[in-house]
Amino acid sequence: MSTSAKTFDIAVIGAGIAGASVAAALAEHTDILLLDMESHAGYHSTGRSAAMYIPSYGPAPIQAFTRASGAFFNNPPTEFGESPLLKARSELLIAREDQLSELNAFYNACSNHDHVQTLNAQQVQLHCPFIKSNYAAAGVIDNSGSDIDVHNLHNGFLKQFRGRGGTEIMNATVQTLRHRDNIWSLHTSAGVFKSKIVINAAGAWADQIAKLAGAESIGLIPKRRTALTIAAPANIPHFTKIPLVADISEAFYIKPDANNLLISPANEDPMPPCDVQPEEMDIALCIDQIEHAFDIKVTNIISKWAGLRSFVADKAPVTGYSNMAPHFYWLAGQGGYGIQSSPALARYAAAGVLGQSTPTDITEHCLNTADVSIDRFN
Ligand SMILES: Cc1cc2nc3c(=O)[nH]c(=O)nc-3n(C[C@H](O)[C@H](O)[C@H](O)COP(=O)(O)OP(=O)(O)OC[C@H]3O[C@@H](n4cnc5c(N)ncnc54)[C@H](O)[C@@H]3O)c2cc1C
User: Fold this and answer.
1) Distance between CA atoms of residues 362 and 168, nearest Å
2) Helices and strands, number each (H, E), in the chain
3) What Rg do the C-alpha atoms of the chain give, in angstroms?
4) Which conformational region is residue 216 in: left (phi greater than 0), alpha (psi within -120 to 50 degrees), or beta?
C-alpha cells in the first residue's frame, strides 16, 4: 500500500531530537510516520546546540530527565556508533565580587554535592588560565558534565527508527490537520497522510501546529541564542580539557570546540519561529563580554550561528494528550535542555502515548509528572 493510502498508528511532526527519539521508542510497537518540513532532520535547534550534558542545569523536571538519561548515554545501543556519546567536560561557574551571593545560592541549592566544589580566585585561574586575573572572585566547578556527540545521538535515534520499520518523509511541511471519523488527515507539501494519533514535536513551531489541530496554546516563546567559534588562545596547556566556563548569571559562556573556542552571549531574545540567524548586535555584545572577562582578543570569527530555545513560562517541557484536540499528543518546550534530556523524555512520552505507566527508573529520579503535564495549561 502506498504511504499516502495507508493509515498509520502514529504520525510525529518534527524530526529534531524530540521527534526522532520518541519515534524510535514507539517504532518498536507501532506503525509510525515521521515528518519534517526540511530536507534533512536536525536542521533547526537540534543541529545548533552547544552539545552539553549538565545534570544540574535547568528546572527540576529537566534535571530529573537528564539524570534518568545518564544510563542510556553511558551504554547506548549499537545504532549509536562505536565512540562514546558523552566525553567528560566539567562546568565552571564563575562570579565577580558583586555576584558572590548568587554563586553561594547556586552552590547551596545543588541537590548533590558529590560532584560540585567551590573554588577561590586562584583555583578558578588554575582551571582556566586565560580568565583575567582580576575578573573572577570565586567559582563552583561541577564535574558531572560532559560534551554530547549530538550528531551520533540524533542519527542513532533515526537509525533505530528506520531499523524498526518506521517511515520518514522529509520536505513535508504540515499545512492543515483535520480529524474525522477518529482519523487525522495531515495535509503536507508532500501529500496527504493519515494517522490515528499525532505527536506534536515541532520545536519552536509547536504552538502553530497546535493551532492547526484546534488544540490549546501553551504560550511557547522561541528565544534566539547565538554562538560563534574563534581561534583558541595560544599556548594553553591541555586546552581541550578546559571546562565550559559560564558566568553565574548566565551572561556568557565559553567552551573548547575541538581546537577552537565556542563563545556565546547566552542571549534569550524572544522571536517568532523561523530559520534564525545571528544578529550583528549579539556578536558585538558577545565579543565585548568575552574580551572583558578573558585574556582574549577576537580578531577572526571562524563560524557563527543562532538557534531557538523554546520555553513555556515555567521552562519545563510539555507532555500529554491535548484536552481539546483528540489523540493529539504534546512533546514540546524543551528549551535549552532538549538534547541532554532526550533519551529519558522520549521513553516517558512513548509510555504516555501508549497509555502505559511511567518507567520506574524515571520516577526514581524524583520526577513530579504534574510539572510536565499539558494539564497545567487548562
Ligand atoms: C545555541 C544553543 C545551545 C544549546 N545548547 C544545548 C545544550 O548544550 N544541551 C542541550 O541539551 N540542549 C541545548 N540546546 C537546546 C536544544 O538544542 C533544544 O532543546 C532541542 O534541539 C529541541 O529539539 P526539538 O526536536 O524540539 O526541536 P527542533 O530540533 O527545532 O526540531 C523541530 C522540527 O520540527 C520541524 N517542523 C516545524 N514545523 C513543521 C511543520 N509545519 N511541518 C513539518 N515539520 C515541521 C522543523 O523543521 C524541525 O526540524 C541549545 C540550543 C541552542 C539554540
Assistant:
1) 28
2) 9, 20
3) 21
4) beta
How many CA atoms lie less than 13 Å away from 122 in the CB half-sphere?
0
What's this model's pTM, rounded to 2 decimal places?
Answer: 0.97
C-alpha–C-alpha distance, residues 336 and 300, integer Å: 27
359 burial type by CB count under 10 A (0-12 exposed, 13-18 middle, 19+ buried): middle
pLDDT in tens, 19-74: 999 999 999 989 999 999 999 999 999 999 999 999 999 999 999 999 999 999 99
pLDDT digits (tens, 9 = 90+) for 318-373: 999 999 999 999 999 999 999 999 999 999 999 999 999 999 999 999 999 999 99
Reduce the DSSP state of residue 145 to 3 states and report it. Answer: coil
C-alpha 143/C-alpha 118 separation (Å) is: 12
Please report which residue ranges of 294-367 form alpha helices under DSSP H. Answer: 342-353, 360-363
Q: How far apart are the first and last CA of the chain?
A: 40
Ligand 1 atom closest to 339 (CA)? 11
Mean pLDDT of 309-314: 98
Rounded to whole angstroms, the Cα distance separating 257 from 51 reads 10
- Ligand 1-lining residues (CB < 6 angstroms): 13-19, 35-38, 43-46, 48-52, 172-174, 201-205, 209, 225, 227, 307-309, 334-340
Atom 46, ligand 1: which residue's CA is nearest? Answer: 14
- Let me know: does 79 contact 27? Beta carbons within 8 Å: no
Of 13, 49, 312, which is best to mutate to test ligand 1, by the most ligand atoms within 8 angstroms of its C-beta? 49
Let me know if 166 is exposed, middle or buried by CB neighbors in 10 A (0-12, 13-18, 19+): buried
Provide the pLDDT confidence category of residue 192 given band limits of 50, 70 and 90. Answer: very high
CA 282 to chain centre: 21
- The domains of the chain, with CATH numbers, are 7-52+150-219+314-377 (3.50.50.60), 90-144+221-311 (3.30.9.10)
How far, in Å, from the CA of 46 to the mean position of ligand 1?
Answer: 4
Cell matching residue 76? 547506548
pLDDT digits (tens, 9 = 90+) for 139-169: 999 999 999 999 999 999 999 999 999 999 9
